[in-house]
Design goal:
The complex is a heterodimer of chains A (694) and B (340). Chain A is an alpha+beta fold and 694 residues long. Helices cover 29% and strands 28% of the residues of chain A. In chain A, strands 20-24-25-31-30-29-28 form a seven-stranded mixed β-sheet, sandwiched between helices. In chain A, strands 4, 6, 7, 14, 15 and 16 form a six-stranded mixed β-sheet that branches. The radius of gyration of chain A is 40 Å and the shape is elongated. The N and C termini of chain A lie far apart (87 Å). Chain B is rod-shaped, with a radius of gyration of 44 Å. Chain B is an alpha+beta fold and 340 residues long. Classes of the chains: A alpha+beta (694), B alpha+beta (340). Chains A and B meet through α7, α10, α12, α13 and β20 of A and α5, β1, β3, β5 and β6 of B. Bound molecules: zinc ion. The site of zinc ion (ZN) has 8 residues of chain B, from loops.
């Protein structure tokens, strides 16, 4: 909202310069966003919070300035010269729904001459961003800017029966309004619902109450007699109708926040006087003031002790009383108990309880008076459960070259469906869609962290970044099959693409399955998870020969593997992409392996390597478990040392060097003992796995 | 038979001068000092044939020759060893300006860097970190926070819904309610996390951002405690003192309510480019917990009072790292992420 300082100063006398006014208002809660000097005037652009509709006008701001600077306030004067017949003989107002319209005030001005507004008015309107229409319409806009109360002017002679009925729309009723669009004005026919309040004449709706006037009864060049409306409409009703019709007007903006029910007569008098001034005509005698339920404002008690308990400094009783009176409250002080009763002015619709009054006192005295103290220390705080583990995961992945991603929680639906993984969430596979997404192409709450990471891979590839190592910690969202509330699962996503050891100037190679598996193992080690296994898995989005699930106690903790060739082709990936998704919430629920110390070996160990040719179809894990099953007592360790394919190795075989470490806790092993054990290993490998010694 | 020691000296000097490597040195050593056929050994064998009166002189000359040969051989041996060491070192010399080798370190996201910092500060100050769902019921997201039906914040223009009564949380203040439902005062809680607003992305807006909510409810908590806490937080976060000021403002779940700013470190409040001339930098919203909110969770507002505050981590990050476009925060562009 824009305010002209020149106009403001017609209502409040202060010597303070515009910057000083702006700063004080801002500190008191009426935030001045920008200050602009134009043609001898200064314009403030305000950002008024929704609780302060009283400040949406020059007079509203002037009231606040007067209170904050203790300056004299001059309300805009209106001397209405009335003549001719009494207004109530010309027209009548009937309110059928006093809930939605507690007050409706009307005046009739006859014999006006519609034409352009005088220069001073046009300039003032235009400086504040309002286009001049004609003298009568301009007056209603002018009074809105001046006093904040929305008015409407009807062509009196076009009102059927020359009367006003405030009622709900009847089923099927329609109204045509004028829409101001960027592309020009356009008529719009609106179908009304029966919960919408309208202003009607004897027959049909002529305005949507508090929002917009109809086309048929508006002011035109042919208008001679004018019926002016100044009403109060219930905020919730106006809001409901405005939202339903997708209308947002200056009038609805104010009514839905709360207009000043007592300002109706002041505003209509001011407008009537101005119409006579700029368009001629005579104002009929008296107003029709239909006010079936006068508003009652209840006194609110305020204790001095309550003020001090909330603001944290001493406030004298007199200062409280003065502060509230300065802001227009009617105050009844009860000095013995240092309490007071305050009645808020009709325009302060936001003040309802004692704490609201505390804020008023604090605002008036200035928030700068609040001292700075620290509440007494109440002992140490705590991190979120699992935070140590989360940090360990981040540090571990970071240490092996992964950058942390944070993706938007909403994603492309089709892409998200690609990663819907039944391995991880058998029961809850449906995605959660937004009713009103902000980005049309991202209407889905991600059901997988892989969706965002794959988008990130594609973005980076587009920028020429080929080597991508990313991880993200965050929630994914799933709708359980039973239609219950969506569930949120804390998850780790990992992505690798491109070459590995890229910083090394000697050696680089393309990433493969074992890089993503290594990342998963690093996470598991960081979390010190006991006894998990990798099993071959079928995962829709992953390569059938390069996909694994991570299992512990029959529960799937995650999946990893290479993106399936079909998906990679469809998405036009430029390189192989490897993914892992880990159920962090489940992992955090597992008791980690305790840290224990094992004595260092007292006797030397003997290392023997076994180099074999094995068919590719044999799994390494089977070889290890087969050898373990031999139960060789002094076999301390049996692991892969080296693997080799190609060259002289047959295509369906690979060469594997396995390293056996023998050690006894009681004595030094003899060469014969080690050789015997070694032989039984070789025999087992040959007989069970068709391995031949190299 | 007489021995010409002088010519032997000369001969050795000539021969030793032509030695170039360990092999020819070994041959030379054998030729002169060889136990069976070495030239020096030959001379010693002649000792017996020398007349007794000449024997002393002969012995002296022999010793001189032997020392001369040994010294010469040792000298050349040392020279050759030096040369070989130098050659090895030359061979093994590397370009120490080539990059070092280690798996390249990854980077924490700037939001995480700040978030962990913030959590550490508040945990030191006695706060517990808590969390709540990101898809919230309208009760937690609005009703319990005193945001009534019809309030603009509830509208689908501002808030994203997944159903009639479930919305993406539009502020981490929801966690206040969960925390107060779980425990009675005194309680100190911070809740960092994702929040969602229906803002179209541009250089200064994202439809998702990270917020930190703080809550301190106990007997006798005041606005002054809020100010002191904000100042202590700013001091610990930036490592320097800066006054905090309050501006009156409106958030339905606090009363009195305010926004809080800290004084610009660059200009100390006189106004500069960083603070856009105001001398102050906007931090977030705050206030005293609204009595309706306290009553909703069964806390007696006459006995307990509390302050709450909230601020955006993204905005802090934007300021701290001087980001010109906060959309970068969630674009996952490695050229961006690798800078932190
Ligand atoms: Zn500054």
């Amino acid at each position: 909202m824009r305010i002209s300082i020149n106009w403001l100063k017609e209502m409040v006398a202060t010597d303070v310069d515009p910057r000083g006014i702006a700063e004080r208002l801002t500190l008191a809660g009426l935030a001045v966003d920008t200050i602009e000097e134009i043609g001898g005037d200064t314009l403030f652009e305000f950002d008024i919070t929704s609780n302060r509709p009283d400040a949406l006008s020059h007079f509203g701001i002037a009231r606040e300035v007067a209170a904050l600077f203790d300056a004299p306030l001059a309300a805009p004067v209106a001397t209405v010269e009335e003549s001719g017949p009494a207004t109530e003989t010309l027209t009548s107002v009937a309110i059928e729904d006093a809930e939605l319209c507690p007050r409706y005030v009307a005046r009739v001005i006859r014999g006006v001459k519609i034409g352009p507004s005088p220069g001073w008015m046009v300039r003032r309107l235009e400086a504040l961003g309002q286009r001049s229409i004609n003298n009568v319409a301009d007056v209603t806009n002018y009074v809105l800017l001046e006093q904040g109360h929305p008015l409407h002017a009807f062509d009196f002679n076009l009102l059927g029966g020359n009367r006003i009925v405030v009622r709900r729309a009847r089923p099927g009723e329609r109204i045509v309004t004028l829409e101001k669009l960027a592309t020009g004005d356009e008529f719009r026919e609106i179908e009304l619902r029966d919960d919408m309040l309208v202003i009607a004449d004897a027959d049909v709706p002529v305005a949507i109450a508090g929002i917009k006037g109809g086309k048929g009864t508006g002011i035109s060049d042919a208008t001679v007699d004018v019926l002016l409306e100044a009403a109060y409409f219930q905020p919730a009703g106006v809001r409901r109708t405005a939202r339903a019709l997708k209308l947002d007007t200056d009038a609805s903006h104010r009514f839905e926040r709360g207009a000043d029910i007592e300002a109706t007569t002041r505003a209509i008098d001011r407008a009537a006087a101005l119409i006579v001034e700029v368009a001629g005509g005579t104002v009929s005698r008296g107003v029709v003031d239909c006010y079936p339920r006068p508003a009652v404002r209840t006194p609110i008690p305020l204790r001095r002790s309550r003020v001090e308990a909330l603001v944290g400094y001493e406030v004298t009783f007199d200062r409280m009383v003065d502060a509230l009176r300065g802001l227009g409250f009617a105050v009844e002080p009860l000095r013995d108990t240092e309490e007071l009763l305050a009645v808020a002015p009709s325009y302060r619709v936001d003040v309802a309880i004692e704490e609201d009054l505390v804020e008023e006192v604090a605002r008036a005295l200035g928030y700068g008076l609040v001292p700075s103290t620290l509440p007494p220390w109440g002992g140490s705080g705590t991190y979120l459960a699992g935070e140590t583990e989360r940090r360990a995961v981040r540090e571990t992945l970071q240490a092996i070259g992964f950058n942390e991603a944070i993706s938007l929680s909403f994603v492309d639906r089709a892409l998200d469906d690609e990663f819907a993984c039944t391995e991880l969430d058998r029961a809850a596979a449906a995605g959660v869609d937004l009713v009103n997404p902000v980005l049309d192409n991202k209407p889905r709450m991600r059901s997988s962290l892989l969706t965002g990471l794959v988008e990130a891979y594609e973005t980076n590839a587009k920028h020429g970044t080929r080597n991508v190592r990313l991880f993200e910690l965050g929630k994914r969202f799933l709708r359980p099959a039973d239609g219950e509330r969506p569930v949120e699962r804390e998850t780790i996503g990992v992505l690798i693409a491109g070459t590995v050891d890229d910083a090394d100037h000697r050696d680089r190679r393309d990433a493969d399955f074992y890089d993503i598996k290594g990342a998963v193992e690093a996470v598991i080690r960081a979390l010190r998870l006991p006894s998990f296994t990798f099993e071959r898995a079928r995962v829709e989005c992953l390569h059938r020969g390069q996909a694994a699930r991570i299992v512990r106690d029959g529960h799937v903790l995650g999946i990893c593997g290479r993106v399936s060739p079909e998906l990679a082709t469809r998405r036009k990936f430029k390189s192989q992409v490897f993914l892992a998704e880990l159920a962090l919430d489940r992992m955090l629920g597992i008791e980690p392996t305790p840290v224990t110390y094992r004595r260092l070996p007292r006797f030397p160990s003997v290392v023997r390597d076994v180099s074999i040719l094995v068919p590719k179809a044999v799994d390494y894990s089977d070889i290890v478990s087969g050898v373990r099953a031999l139960g060789i007592p002094d076999l301390a360790d049996f692991v892969l040392y080296d693997i080799f394919t190609g060259g002289s190795i047959p295509g369906d075989h690979l060469s594997m060097t396995l390293r056996a470490t023998f050690r006894s806790e009681e004595r030094t092993l003899t060469d014969d003992e080690v050789s015997a054990s070694h032989r039984s290993i070789v025999d087992e490998l040959a007989s069970r796995f068709g391995a031949s010694l190299r | 038979m007489s021995t010409n020691f002088e010519s032997l000296h000369d001969q050795f000097d000539r021969e030793v001068a032509s030695v170039s490597d360990a092999e020819s040195l070994r041959a030379l050593r054998d030729r002169w000092l060889g136990r069976k056929a070495g030239l020096v050994t030959d001379v010693r064998k002649q000792m017996g044939a020398v007349a007794s009166e000449d024997r002393a002189a002969f012995g002296k000359a022999f010793n001189a020759l032997q020392q001369h040969v040994e010294a010469g051989l040792d000298r050349v041996s040392a020279e050759i060893a030096n040369r070989e060491r130098d050659a090895t070192i030359a061979r093994e010399t590397v370009d120490i300006t080539l990059p070092g080798r280690a798996a390249p370190l990854g980077h924490r996201h700037p939001i995480t860097i700040l978030r962990q910092n913030i959590e550490d500060i508040f945990v030191r100050m006695g706060y517990s970190v808590e969390d709540g769902p990101e898809i919230e019921t309208t009760f937690f997201n609005f009703d319990a926070l005193n945001i009534p039906d019809g309030h603009p914040a509830r509208e689908s223009q501002d808030t994203m819904y997944v159903s009639e009564d479930l919305a993406l949380r539009s502020q981490t203040s929801t966690v206040q309610i969960h925390a107060m439902q779980r425990r009675q005062p005194p309680l100190r809680v911070i809740a960092p996390g994702r929040v969602f607003r229906r803002d179209t992305p541009d250089a200064t807006h994202n439809p998702m951002f990270f917020q930190v909510e703080g809550l301190n409810v106990a007997e006798g908590i005041t606005l002054a405690d809020l100010r002191g806490t904000c100042e202590e937080f700013v001091r610990q976060l930036f490592g320097a003192d800066a006054p905090v000021r309050f501006r009156a403002s409106y958030f339905p779940f606090v009363e009195p309510g305010c926004e809080f700013d800290y004084q610009c470190f660059v200009c100390k409040g006189t106004g500069c480019r960083v603070c856009k001339g105001s001398g102050w930098i906007e931090m977030g919203g705050a206030g005293m917990v609204h009595p309706h909110v306290l009553r909703t969770v069964g806390i007696d507002p006459e006995r307990f009072s509390g302050f709450a505050f909230g601020f955006g981590i993204d905005r802090l990050a934007a300021r701290q790292f001087d980001l010109d476009d906060i959309r970068l925060l969630f674009a996952n562009d490695l050229r961006f992420l690798e800078q932190f």
